[in-house]
Design a protein that fits this description.
By secondary structure, the protein is α+β, with helices and mostly antiparallel strands. It has one domain (8-157). It is 21% helix and 25% strand. The chain is built from 3 helices and 9 strands; from the N terminus they run βββββββααββα. It has helices spanning 96-107, 117-136, 153-157; strands at residues 8-14, 27-33, 39-45, 59-63, 66-70, 74-78, 83-84, 140-143, 148-149. The strands form 2 sheets. A 5-stranded antiparallel sheet has the order 3-2-1-8-9. Strands 4-5-6-7 form a 4-stranded antiparallel sheet, with no helix packed on it. The longest helix is centred in the last third of the chain and has 20 residues, at 117-136.
Length: 173
């Protein structure tokens, strides 16, 4: 979406049917609102799920014109669930994310990576922000420029942790 980080995060869910020590929800919905008003809804269904596009385990990406399923295969569908053929001029890379990462590491060429490192930071930050909102149990306002929560000390404490020497992440001013 190329929206960067959100300005508002909401999240709810729970950890259901497992009797373990897990701390993150296996069923969760997070809503991210961006500065221009665009929203993205992210859903985790770790237990029972539907079979959109014939896939029960995988990733679903919904857009205004249809959806994309990435699971046992990769398929595009329009809004009426009609499959849209993948065009040869836009092939899907079959190396996958991990194969792509390893290729870029081996070649040491930035252009061999699917996306710049900042994209990885933004993607991971969305997961962390959703989990912080889940843990504190309320909607959070976020400043993408400072990467800090606005007026919420409890949430801000969850952006980092006390590190154990020598495994310290340095502060960057």
């Amino acid at each position: 979406m190329n929206k960067g980080l959100p300005v508002k995060v909401e999240s709810s869910g729970g950890r259901y049917t497992y009797d373990d020590q897990g701390e993150t929800p296996n069923t969760q919905i997070a809503t991210f609102t961006y500065e221009d008003g665009t929203i993205m809804v992210f859903e985790v269904r770790g237990r029972a799920t539907n079979a959109e596009g014939g896939t029960k385990v995988g990733n679903l990406f919904y857009g205004s014109g249809g959806y994309f399923v990435e699971g046992a295969g990769k398929k595009f569908f329009d809004r009426k669930d009609k499959e849209i053929p993948i065009k040869e001029e836009h092939p899907i890379d079959t190396r996958g994310r991990f194969g792509n990462f390893l290729r870029a590491v081996r070649s040491r060429k930035e252009e061999d990576n699917f996306a710049p490192p900042e994209a990885g930071h933004i993607a991971a930050a969305h997961c962390h922000l959703a989990n912080v909102a889940y843990r504190v149990g309320h909607t959070l306002r976020f400043d993408p420029k400072t990467e800090q929560f606005v007026d919420d000390e409890e949430a801000s404490k969850l952006l980092t942790r006390a590190y154990r020497e020598p495994f310290v992440v340095p502060e960057i001013a």
